[in-house]
């Protein structure tokens, strides 16, 4: 490859000024150095770039082809340089995020809209895909932030808590468990459990409630849509463990009933996962702050968490009393 950006800049300046002398001045070159550059380029491509002795200078077809390239490439280079300067100042960059939360879009999208107004130089976008492995993609820099309730312990990634929320059991109105002060794992042994189509290891109802007690529900049904899960619950087709904010509207309209899981409830934390080296990025930190503000404004029943907490250590684990069986 013999073409360099300096060749494109030379053609662009000569075309704009119509003079080798003025172009050399703009490029901070002597006229002799500029002439040698043009001569080398013409010898390399085997044809002239300018019509000789024309005033002002006129381009040959070869020169016109390089000028067209210069008009397309040089603005992109200037934009990239400006972007890199803003990124160096923490004012711009790429923020592609993945959401491992089927019920987060209603409040996350408004947060993204607010953030775009304040940070227009950040390339903010959602990355979707049913088989997308979010955390490996984050580690490999394919994406830049993951909204998840399943942090991992690795030095390359940091997980900043956004807020805590209670997982409630959604029931059809009049369901016998609706009157329970706290559902026990054994109470779900005869139930059809409706949940999102993800691995059991990522569902708190299994990982932190049923499996420690050795309980398996009578049946399992899945749906990707929260609204569909609620319709199935409402019609008595099963029960579902969902975040409290997902259930708020249906509960207010008395379409469903709810009960706590365990005597003190089953709580979880939502995190923003990022690469550890990006933790202090101003535009990324601003996005986390906007997500927290929007969630507090739109979601009832959530609790703030300490910025310094990472991992799941702050989440309440079910105690032995949570697994006590109801008397016959």
From TrEMBL:
Gene Ontology cellular component list: cytoplasm
Where would I find the HTH lysR-type domain in this sequence?
3-60
An annotated Gene Ontology molecular function: transcription cis-regulatory region binding
> Record keywords: Ion transport included?
no
Source species, domain of life? Bacteria
- What GO terms in the biological process aspect are recorded for it? methionine biosynthetic process
Provide the residue span(s) of the region labelled Disordered: 307-328
Keyword Disulfide bond in the entry? The reply is no
Instruction: Tell me one Pfam family matched here.
Output: HTH_1
> Which UniProt keywords are listed?
Activator, Amino-acid biosynthesis, Cytoplasm, DNA-binding, Methionine biosynthesis, Repressor, Transcription, Transcription regulation
Q: Primary place of residence?
A: cytoplasm
Transmembrane stretches, by residue range? none
Where is composition skewed (Basic and acidic residues) in this entry?
307-320
Instruction: Indicate where this protein resides in the cell.
Output: Cytoplasm
Q: Which Gene3D superfamilies has this protein been placed in?
A: Periplasmic binding protein-like II, Winged helix-like DNA-binding domain superfamily/Winged helix DNA-binding domain
| Similarity section | Belongs to the LysR transcriptional regulatory family.
Protein's recorded name: HTH-type transcriptional regulator MetR
Species per Swiss-Prot/TrEMBL record: Thiocystis violascens (strain ATCC 17096 / DSM 198 / 6111)
